[in-house]
Amino acid sequence: MNNKITNLFSRLYLLLFSVIGTAQISDASTIVAKNATLELLGDGFVFTEGPAVDKKGNVFFTDQPYNKIIRWDATTKKMSVFCSESGRSNGMYFDKKGYLITCADMDNQLWQFDNEGNHKVIYEDTMNAHNGPNDLWIDAKNGIYFTDPLYVRNYWKRDSISKRNGKNIYYLSSDRKSIITVDDNLVQPNGIIGTPDGKKLYVADIGNSKTYVYDIQKDATLTNRKLFCEMGSDGMTVDNQGNVYLTGNGVHVFDKNGKKIAYITVPENWTANVCFGGKNLDILFITAMDSVYGLQMNVKGVR
């Protein structure tokens, strides 16, 4: 009898959740697939972050408090632990060679993972300049833009943060030998994503409730900073139509001109990050609190 009652409540919950998922999607531009509902792909984590998709559509995300990277298989839809010692990785992105690059903020480093989950440090803050790398995007030259806000972690063992240079955006060269500051006039930079043509860079200043767009120059510097929208974001992504996806209270979607065109409610207190995954790159993969969700889309992600 108990099992029957449990199964009944489970069915009722799924039915209610599906109805809520449909009703809470505001989509004036039909970027969400018809009749699509928000699907719970996995839960039981502590805090999910940093989704990144590989060439096969598999999505990797972090459970930062547990210091793990989890892999979601695009074929089986199952999850497995990719790495159990991730350097407290947060934001992640795949580079042009297929390596997974992560913001490992435990010791102010950037890590590179191979397909087997083995890592090496590709950048380390030896000058005591950074707060803790948070999120990143990799350009066609394999150079890395990363944000460096300040979220004090209880596992840090570093010196006083008062010595640090500020909350900036940095660019690490493809040979990993030089690093430059590309913007030092932000309150709390967080989410970051570039356009597939490599011409524009979006950065969310979550501490100032704004997202900016920059022109990327040939020498990797940023110019012509413009206000994109009056909203900050934790993580972000773009689709093949040039729409920009911001997170926080659910997922907010803006067209390339900064006009809001869609809103996706997520039944969690905080939505941390998004990317497109699946074999066809048409599933919006959402990390939110202790869970991850998927939503079938009409648009696709870009690599």
Keywords:
single chain, 5-stranded antiparallel sheet, 1 helix, 303 residues
Architecture overview:
The strands form 6 sheets. The chain has a 5-stranded antiparallel beta sheet with strand order 1-22-21-20-19. Strands 2-25-24-23 form a 4-stranded antiparallel beta sheet, with no helix packed on it. It has a 4-stranded antiparallel beta sheet with strand order 3-4-5-6, with no helix packed on it. Residues 1-23 have low confidence and may be disordered. It has 303 residues and is mainly β. A hairpin with a 5-residue loop joins strand 21 (250-254) and strand 22 (260-264). It starts with a helix and ends in a 7-residue tail after the last strand. It has one helix spanning 2-23; strands spanning 25-27, 39-42, 48-53, 59-63, 68-72, 79-83, 89-94, 100-104, 109-113, 119-124, 135-138, 144-148, 168-172, 179-183, 189-194, 200-205, 210-216, 222-229, 236-238, 244-248, 250-254, 260-264, 273-277, 283-288, 291-296.
